[in-house]
Structure formats: C-alpha cells, structure tokens
Design brief:
This protein has a single domain, classed as TolB, C-terminal domain (Neuraminidase). The N and C termini lie far apart (60 Å). A five-stranded mixed sheet has the order 1-19-18-17-16, with no helix packed on it. Strands 7, 8, 9, 10 and 11 form a five-stranded antiparallel sheet that branches. Strands 2-22-21-20 form a four-stranded antiparallel sheet, with no helix packed on it. The N terminus is likely disordered. It is mainly beta. Helix content is 8%, strand content 50%.
Length: 264
C-alpha cells in the first residue's frame, strides 16, 4: 500500500481522536470578575502587613499577613460592619513566621505557618475563633501556602500550589497530587462541594477557579484584572460563601471588595 493511500485513514483517525479529547476537556464559561456586581468596598481601619489570606462569618473578618523584614506573622480580626480592628495576635513557630491562606470551620481557623521560602517546612495550626488561641498543630515537610477545610479532609497547596496535600483532621497524610492547573493559588476555600481557589496565572493576570472535589478537575474559571489602585484582585486574600465573594488584595491601607456572583 502506498503512503498516499494511508493518509485519508490517518486523518480520519486524527479527527476522531481530537473530537474525543474536546468532549472530555472541561468547558469553561468565558467569565471575568467584571461580569459580576461589586456590592461593597470596606476600608479596614488598621494597617495590615503583606496580606496572605482571609476568612469570614456573619460579623467578623479574619486576616493573615506577614512582616518579612521583622520576621513576624500576624492574625488580625476586623468587624465586617465597620472595618474596625477588634483583635490581633502575633503568630509564629520559630523560623516559621509566614502565615498563608486560611480557612475556617464552625469553631476554628486553620492556618498554615511556614518558613519564608519554597520547599521548606510548615506547621498547620488550628486556632479558636473565640479566643484565637492555639488548639492543635502538626508538621509538614514543605512550604504550605494555603489551606481549605472539608468535612473529612484538610487540603493544602504548597508554594504557588504546584502540589496539593490531603490530610485528615488529625494531620495524617492521605495523598499528595500535582496541581491540575497553571494557576498559582494563594488562598482557597471549600464551598458547595467544590474547592474554590484564587491566584496568579502565568500571564500575570488573576484567576478564580472552581475545582471539582475530590478529583480537583477544573470546572470553571473567572478571570480577574487589577483594581483602581492597579493591584491584581486575586493577588492574595479570597473567601467565598455561596454567591458572596470577598477579595482583599492590598497591603497596608487594605480594602475588602465584596462581589455578588449571582448579580450581573
């Protein structure tokens, strides 16, 4: 058989293969943050350091930040009604003073506290929301930069979330997997059965991703640009509950941006 006779068969098989791949690939909605309504901007009434992560309930906002020159990590609590600082404590564990993206359950905050360098070490701290005191911690032989809390697991991303760790709530490692996306996640949460994670894409734009759980398959992405101060919205702190999305990208004179994902 001549090579020319094989070409039509090769092309037909190639079309079938490419069609199958396209059907299996996630269909991402072409959404951007500007598609959604910004419902509030809250100025925080106390200075922050280099913001890392946020979480919230109906009354309070919790925020982690790091002061690299002075090797200090901070956990701050603000009123969501007024932006006033209600409490703050210094947090560290020896050489580990870099708190990352945080997540809360009903009674506690989970905070990764790491050395300020990749491929280093961390402790994962569980702190009381009521007192901010340390309740429990466990060690990890990597820099963990963000964490999400599910009913069964803790899910942590290392420096720029190249890899994900799954632990049970006692700190026992269940599995470790490579990230399925190109997004350098800085803060992530578990909501409505999915991991929602925000970060910085290779082109230096921002992205908020919805990852199916536990597969971590990318289900949806919302692209994000810069705010009116030229700061990338997804640079650091992100929290979400149902259709309420909170972003806190700025250091120092920080502002909290609140979006309604159901409103257009």
């Amino acid at each position: 058989m001549r090579l020319a006779d094989l070409y039509p068969r090769y092309m037909a098989r190639r079309v079938v293969l490419l069609t199958a791949i396209s059907l299996l690939a996630p269909r991402l909605d072409p959404q951007t943050l500007s598609d959604f309504k910004m419902v509030r901007v809250l100025e925080l009434k106390a200075a922050t350091q280099h913001v890392q992560g946020i979480d919230f309930n109906d009354r309070l906002l919790w925020l982690t930040s790091v002061d690299k020159p002075n090797r200090k990590g901070w956990l701050q609590e603000f009123s969501l009604a007024t932006g006033e600082l209600t409490r703050q404590i210094e947090i560290d564990d020896g050489i580990r003073f870099h708190p990352g993206g945080i997540s809360g359950d009903d009674q506690s905050l989970w905070i990764p506290l790491a050395e300020y360098r990749p491929k280093s070490s961390s402790v994962i701290q569980k702190r009381s929301k009521r007192t901010l005191k340390l309740e429990f911690q466990f060690n990890v032989a990597d820099h963990i930069g963000c964490i999400a809390v599910t009913p069964e697991f803790l899910v942590g991303g290392n420096w720029d979330s190249k890899e994900f760790y799954f632990w049970d709530h006692s700190g026992r490692l269940i599995r470790k997997v490579a990230s399925p996306t190109d997004n350098g996640y800085q803060d992530m949460k578990f909501d409505a059965g999915q991991i929602i994670a925000s970060g910085i894409l290779p082109d230096k734009t921002g992205g908020i991703d919805w990852l199916d759980f536990p597969s971590l398959r990318l289900a949806k992405r919302v692209k994000a640009g810069n705010n009116d101060r030229g700061v990338l919205y997804t640079r650091e702190g992100m929290a979400i509950r149902e259709n309420q999305l909170l972003l806190l990208p700025e250091d120092g004179a920080s502002r909290l941006f609140v979006f309604d994902l159901a409103g257009r």
